[in-house]
Amino acid sequence: MDIDEMHARLVAELRALRTEAGLTLRELSLKVHVSDSSLSRYFAGQALPPWEVVATLTDLGGGNHAEMRRLWDEAQRERRQSRWPAAGSPAEVVAAERRLGPVVGICALIAASGAVGWALGRR
Question: Transmembrane ranges (predicted)?
Fold first, then answer.
């Protein structure tokens, strides 16, 4: 998994906050109210934590809320931009449509079969 620059910076800060808090992963999970496996993914950079988790870790580690919010916002922005093709890029839009075409068709088929099943059940 390729991690964006701001996400990597956020992860480094989260790890520093964890060290500063001096708590085990299990102890942190109880204070932050998320599983230790989720925290592990956040500290490894495998997932971007929700702001509430970042804010609580910032409190526990004595960090700067304004700076952590800025990093989190930037990481969120990078994440959104890396997921979707830029508007106005025809080649990327066509490629995305080709990937989604079969999915849309299957969803339509499932919806139609559900409607038929519902209609038949009403008889």
Answer: 100-120
